[in-house]
Amino acid sequence: MIVLKSPREIELMREAGRIVALTLAVLAEKAKEGVSTAQLEEWAEEVIRKNKAIPSFKGYRGYPASICVSVNEEVVHGIPSPKRILKEGDVVSIDVGAIYRGYHGDAAITIGIGRITEEAEKLIEVTKGALEAAISVAKAGNRLGDISWAIQSYAEKHGFNVVREYTGHGIGRYMHEEPQVPNVGTPGKGVLLKPGMTLALEPMVVAGSWEVEVLPDGWTVVTKDKSLAAHFEHTIAITDGDAEILTKL
Ligand code: MF3
Ligand code: CO
Known about the structure:
This protein is of the alpha+beta class. The chain has a single domain (7-245), classed as Alpha-Beta Complex (Creatine Amidinohydrolase), CATH 3.90.230.10. It contains four helices and 15 strands. It has helices at residues 7-30, 37-50, 118-136, 144-157, and strands at 54-55, 67-71, 74-76, 91-100, 103-112, 161-162, 168-170, 177-181, 198-201, 204-206, 212-214, 221-223, 229-231, 234-237, 244-245. Strand 4 and strand 5 form a beta hairpin. Residues 106, 169, 200, 202, 233 line the site of cobalt (II) ion.
């Protein structure tokens, strides 16, 4: 069942989203060569808790941390570690989730550390563009497949591939609600979008093959061919007009 949110509920999700966006902005500033991914985790916890919110990932199905930091061929769900030190040229995806008064915000960005390759730069821009393309068709009257197709067609048009095994999702009182939002699909198909739907859209785009596998830690998703991956995510609300991005400052 897809739960539509009231204006009051969306107001709370706006605050959860603001806190997630603020956390990402702080981490983007602090993620430099020589910083460990565990340090990013500590800073994230600090920002989230100072803003009276709770990190939503910690303990979710046993996930051991408050954020995901996925470097280079890691696609999503990388676990922060004091041993993982960022270095020049790394492509780093940071995923943050927070709960404010019972409501969730979920967003991710990908950034480069120092100078990165031209291909890495393009991959980041295209993944961000795929999310923007998805948001621009996330309107009442359109269908879920329009969102999926916007992501897939944008990424493929620019020479990249989209990960199939992980999707976006409905979000609200729970981090994962119906519907699933695949990053590949067919325009005009799927659930009709309605005002009050709240969705986390999250394209995962790779430079090589879209096939992925999970590392022995049980969490870290990597590309099978070790090609670079990028991930952007926003939590949005469907309205009568353009979608509202909730995870923004
Ligand atoms: N943005 C991710 C998602 O929507 C974050 C979940 S990571 C987990 O699935 F560790 F909490 F599972
Ligand atoms: Co998500």
